[in-house]
Specification:
The protein is mainly β. The protein has 1 helix and 9 strands, in the order E-E-H-E-E-E-E-E-E-E. It has one domain.
């Protein structure tokens, strides 16, 4: 899940998901904050050792599931809240980090409803 955000803060939040959170309601993920959005349109197989595939021996596959705007509502060290405005990925979602020393996160749909 790659989303461009406020370029004054950072250009792209890149959550590399373990599964589709639209199907299960949640997914584990790793987080990268990129200074550039050069990977936003990237699709296909990624060889080991490439920028979005840090594995040594495993080919990974990346595809664009959805496109749209995202608003960062909360940007804490271990808690982030987003409003996604895509065609499939819509509404409020939260990302909870395990702790500040790791990039492991859980992404899930928020049970809160926006009223504004």
């Amino acid at each position: 899940m790659r989303r461009p955000v406020d370029p004054k803060v950072f250009s792209t939040i890149d959550f590399q998901l373990s599964s589709d959170p639209l199907k299960s309601g949640a997914a584990s993920a790793t987080l990268k904050i990129e200074a550039t959005s050069k990977y936003m349109e990237l699709e296909g197989e990624l060889p080991p050792g490439s920028p979005l595939n840090p594995t040594k021996n495993t080919i990974s596959c990346i595809f664009i599931e959805d496109k749209g705007d995202a608003v960062v509502l909360v940007d804490g060290e271990t808690f982030k809240k987003f409003e996604f405005r895509g065609k499939k990925l819509k509404g409020l979602w939260i990302a909870q980090g395990r702790d500040v020393k790791t990039d492991l996160w859980k992404i899930s749909r928020s049970s809160n409803v926006r009223t504004d």
